[in-house]
Amino acid sequence: MFLEYIFIMKKIILSFIIFFLFIINVNASYVVIDRNTNNVLIESGKDEKRLIASITKIMTAYIVIKNTNLNDEVVVSDEVLKAYGSSIYLKVGEKITVLDLLYGLMLRSGNDAAIILANYTSGSIDEFVKLMNKEAKKIGMKNTIFHNPSGLDEENENISTAYDMAILTSKAMKNKTFRKIFRTKKHVVKTNLNTHSWINKNKALFMYKYVNGGKTGYTKKAKRTLVTSASFDSSNIIIVTLRENDDFNFHVKTYKYIFSKYKRYVLVNKNNLNIKDTYYKEKYNSIFYVKNNYLLLIRKSDLKKYHIVYELYKHKKVHSNDIVGALKLYKNKTVIYEEPIYILLK
């Protein structure tokens, strides 16, 4: 029985190794995060700075949504003539809403839409890029610099990391309009000069029913870049790959693995604290409490890596609802979550 168990375990470990060796390009970097907490589940080179191509447009869309009236009608200016590469084929004089431009930007990666939206939002590309970098800094994208709203890299380059793009996407997904655009498979719009019908370039949306968003990217210098999101049960996942040749298959296979192996566990239960104390018990008839539960998406086999430490401060005098300590959740030797401990005098 013991030898049979060892054999089975070796097969499981080997299959896990083969899974990640064969579906990920060794030159690629990637990250898988839990959108609920931004906790990293799996990664390789998540902080490597790389060209990001058109996944840049996630930030472009987010900035436009935050700073414009989406129902505004835009008259396409001759600035559109500067666009090249992927396009939604806007014409000078065409009238189209900001919202419809966002669909063209995200579904078809229109570089012409990026130029028109940036100019409409901020008055110029330079001013729009300032907003992009300001927002990047605000949300903690520590290894990112934007130089344009499209991701084209012949003249200047947008640099980021898999992790930075994941936390950007997590932030943007909190916006209802962004989520709707991100998951749309097809959008049709009629303007004064044209009827546009756009099918989303993100093939993962059509390959796996739990995928609910994404943005593709490609340039000769950046190679393939891809951001997707998927949800199943209570799990909401974001995957970012940079320079992965078989990106759509990698994303789908990884989602299937995560949804089968990872579950959400309550690691801090506010109704079940185990605080051992003599200092306050001798002085007061009291109880301790924290205000929040903390849930984490992990594999069952990883539960042993987490433990809670309760740190109590020895105040000479306290009142009900005073903070008297800190609950610290460790993963191995690293604190990953902290919560104030309160006292309630009876």
Structural description of this entry:
The protein is of the alpha+beta class and 346 residues long. The chain has 2 domains: 236 residues, Beta-lactamase (3-Layer(aba) Sandwich), CATH 3.40.710; 77 residues, Spermidine Synthase, Chain: A, domain 2 (Roll), CATH 2.30.140. It is 32% helix and 30% strand. The strands form 6 sheets. It has a 5-stranded antiparallel beta sheet, with helices on both faces. The chain has a 4-stranded antiparallel beta sheet with strand order 13-17-16-15, with no helix packed on it. Strand 7 and strand 8 form a beta hairpin. Helix 2 runs antiparallel to helix 3 and helix 2 runs parallel beside helix 4. The longest helix has 22 residues.
Descriptors:
346 residues; alpha+beta; Beta-lactamase; Spermidine Synthase, Chain: A, domain 2; 2 domains; five-stranded antiparallel sheet; 32% helix; elongated
